[in-house]
Design a protein that fits this description.
alpha/beta; Dna Topoisomerase Vi A Subunit, Chain: A, domain 2
Length: 172
């Protein structure tokens, strides 16, 4: 992309540079959920029709966008802006654990859905934040992981299949 912009599309490169500069100046974090926004509250937190008693904890703003595109969730979010990574100096404080604790202590939340990625770091992050949730006597749940809808078992990797089998649910 950089070669194309520099070689054949310099006006487009200027336009892109200006848009990025304006974004850096205008976009910040929602004071409640930490999502990227130009206002103090993002459009999700400001929407009175959303279920404020349900919080979905995610690693990134891109995760919020993906969940919103599914159309199956009507609660609020809390965006960590990463996952635990001690080697990179990312601990609970850098992920907003203090802000999350304040949010939980304010009351009105009945469930937190932990929707971190199914990686070692994501699982460790989910575990840490589930402990914070339980300290406030709030229900905590984890998103399901496993075989995708429409997927065929012969093409699913062994780790995903093992996780799906371990997390199976009774049909009775």
């Amino acid at each position: 992309m950089a070669f194309h912009l520099l070689q054949d599309a310099r006006p487009a490169a200027q336009s892109l540079a200006g848009a990025l500069t304006r974004s850096l100046e205008r976009v910040g974090r929602c004071t409640r959920c930490r999502m990227l926004t130009e206002a103090p509250l993002c459009s999700i937190c400001a929407n009175p029709q959303r279920d404020a008693g349900l919080i979905c904890l995610v690693e990134s703003p891109a995760d919020v966008v993906a969940i919103e595109q599914s159309g199956g969730y009507r609660g609020h979010y809390f965006v960590l802006m990463g996952h635990l990574s001690p080697l990179d100096g990312i601990g609970p404080e850098q992920l907003g654990s203090q802000e999350f604790t304040v949010l939980l202590a304010a009351g009105g939340i009945r469930e937190v859905i932990l929707a971190t990625n199914p990686t070692v770091e994501g699982e460790a992050t989910a575990h840490l934040f589930s402990q914070l949730v339980r300290q406030h006597h709030i229900a905590a749940s984890r998103i399901a992981h496993g075989v995708p809808m429409g997927g065929e078992l012969e093409y699913v990797d062994g780790g995903t299949l093992a996780h799906a089998l371990a997390g199976r649910q009774s049909l009775t």
